[in-house]
């Protein structure tokens, strides 16, 4: 699709992968069992969001909060959904606040605007920045808005207890 980027992409890959020009799916489909073990070692078992950056947040959480977070994250169907939801729930690098019913929820503009037309409309102008990066919602239930945001981040549609 982008032949001019092929060489640039190959040079940017980590050492052991840089010589490979086949797609990851072709690599897996055409590999012997020994090759698969080598390829698996090239891929990190944990995501960057699960790294030590999150440990301090988890360590400072109550048992109930940690249980609820784990339950929600466990319902995600993909690693990306899990990572984005963890980023939201553990308030990693937020850049906007959603205020509802007098309570504040920290979030990420890029996720909100890319996954929800409502927030895309709100965030498309410059007034959110001029309002201190706070989006004030009508008086909805805090729990409903929080669940909606969890869905926006992860696609999770199972309502927690």
UniProtKB/TrEMBL annotation:
Q: Which InterPro entries match?
A: BTB/POZ_dom, SKP1/BTB/POZ_sf
Q: Which Pfam families match?
A: BTB
User: What residue stretches are annotated with the BTB domain?
Assistant: 94-161
Write down what this protein is called.
BTB domain-containing protein
Its source organism is Pectinophora gossypiella
